[in-house]
UniProtKB/TrEMBL annotation:
InterPro entries for this protein: MFS, MFS_dom, MFS_trans_sf
Any one of the GO CC terms: membrane
Name used for this protein in its record: Major facilitator superfamily (MFS) profile domain-containing protein
The UniProt record lists the keyword Iron-sulfur: no
Species the sequence originates in: Coniosporium apollinis (strain CBS 100218) (Rock-inhabiting black yeast)
Amino acid sequence: MATHDSMEKEHAHPKYVDDHGLDSDSGHIDEFLHEFTHAEQRKIIHRVDRRLVTTVGIMYCISLMDRTNLSAAALAGMTRELNMVTGYGYSIVTLVFFISYIIFQPPATVTVRKVGPRVFLSLITLLWGSVMIGMGFVKDWGTLAGLRFILGILEAGFFPSCVYLLSTWYTRFEVGKRYSCFYVLGCVASACAGILAFGLMQLNGRAGLTGWRWIFIIEGVITCIIGIGGYWALVGFPDDAHKSFMFLNERETKMIMARVQADRGDAHTEPFAMAKFIRGGADIKIWGYALIFFGTTTISYALAYFMPIILRENMGFSVGAAQCLVAPPYVFAGIVMYCVSWIGDKYHIRGPIIVFNMLLAVIGLPIMGFHSNAGVRYFGVFLVTAGANANVPATMAYQANNIRGQWKRAFCSATLVGFGGIGGIAGSLVFRTQDRPTYYPGIYACIACTIMNMIIVGLLTIRFRIQNKRADRGEVVLEESGQGFRYTI
């Protein structure tokens, strides 16, 4: 355990008066914030919402579409043309993406802080759009797997960088709704991806290319356009926001940083040190968040990769119907997602939201897997899709509320999304070809993930309550238990 002197040094609020003209002393911060009325603060925050949340949401929308369009291409004839009908070819193609996606998470999260979100995020989006176009011209599944590996390298930095970027702009009980809005656009992508893919399939035969190839080519072109536009629309971190095409003036920038500083005391970015970055791994709760995210993404990726196939093979829908019926469950998931995020922010709760989402999934999975009626099984898909996808922003808000320090926050974002990538690997394997058409082992695996998540939340809740009571008695126990900080249960 750290000594008292080292703990005080660790928790001392960093000064940024030289850069921003604002003393980090809490009294000076309060005095500065009182210069703004509540209406003025909300107006500035809403401007941030429109510029930041909308832009990263649209970019994440195309990101999720690009990484999960394999199932649509498979139904459009890709597996037959590339000899993946039997064997493990399709599973390998889905899996290799996550190998590079996981490996390159931590360095990418550091890079975005050094290079800046505008350059970094727009560049990698443009590059992976080019890779997507190339996927439309492959001749064998080995080449497709190689391009998917490269896609994983490029996308590795996107999601954790967005999670990290959003967390630097908002206070702890504002971030839940913003994560939800950011991720709900991803649900829109998943909802529309099947419909878009079905439309692109109709280009079959144009320019001598089969329909599934047009899915990759057209979506790749759209990605490149969004990547280029992202450079002009994105903003940087709050401490350089005033440089982002006059997005905020100097006084408004100071107001944003003062609010974050007053809320959790880490608005200022400390100089990077590898030891400080890696030291975050010693905190066991970071791995608890990561395991929750793993369990959540195992289910959500399994649905993303296999839902059209399950609707076709398990429930008997036609190819066109299977592509289009993907949309309604994701629309429902978006509604649930925003509602529970609003409740979490309003009532300052995080763990119960995660448990509720997992209860939806654990109720829906047996219905989806075991009921005799296809229509009822499709209702189960709604519950599972809502529970799994609503839990993604809920988990992000859970960790964002209970982590303090810029580089520890960056490390937590990387490990969180890295374990999400491991969940992607698991999700690509749980519904195995040999288990068709019932896919019972995959159903059991997803149920196990929901139960694991609820157990971890229970353990973390007990830990947080103990630490909050000790902090109430004036005992500084953990890094986050500094001046005025309490864990969000």
